[in-house]
Amino acid sequence: MELKTYLKTQKTRIDRFLESYQHPLDVPERLKEAMQYSISAGGKRLRPILVLAAHDAVGGTSPAAVAVGAAIELIHTYSLIHDDLPAMDNDDFRRGKPTNHKVYGEAMAILAGDGLLTQAFEILSDPVLMAEVPAGILTRITAEVARGAGSGGMVGGQVLDMLSEGTEIDGTSLQNMHMRKTGALIRASALAGALLGGADPRQVEALGHYGTRVGLAFQVADDILDVTQTEEQLGKSTSDVARGKRTYPSIYGLETARIMAGGLVREALESLESFGDEAEPLREIARYIVSRSH
Domain residues for 98? Predict the structure, then answer.
């Protein structure tokens, strides 16, 4: 399998859905513009692609897979808009473009994020898009996504991140923070795809473990890139180290952080040992996460 082609193909599927999705209600034009600005700003679409890859790994055939993945991408995008705000990370650039609040103002950026978050659950509850998903499965998917995004997951992780700024937290605290802030929604993506594809309990457990390890590996790799790449390569203006945040390289050193990332990928791959060739995209994505340059 050629990963670059696979990622491009799946990203196109997600982007086409996001471009064509028609909101069922009349949305103020300025709000719609602000929401679309961040959705169309680019990005890897890693989380929705994980939904599709996990769905395919268990032999899924659901027509709702792209819509579920797109819903998770909306949640991820909302989190980026809010993370960039002056009250949070105070970033001027995201993906090489001015951040949402720099273009539309802080109030509109907050509301654009709110709009994207709630739109995600509109999609997950859309009776047409989800018509063929059994009610019990849809409830489980929605619950996993909500947990991954909520106060015990991504939002809680962001709180821990804010509270840790300028403090000397240890490696255990750092891991707990990032398993929530970054890892929880990535894990939810893998679980959503598995559930949608009709996974059995053993497969659900394995793909949940895969998502947890891949999510943490993604963050370790991000921390490494933060100290090895330029602002232009990263597409943002301020590093975590400059903000007084503890990172894996700052606690363990750069080489040890790289070893840790590799170990997490190996653990993710081990969780897929019972899967066949259908899971090859998941294996390649795990390897890609620690080899990427941005």
Answer: 3-289
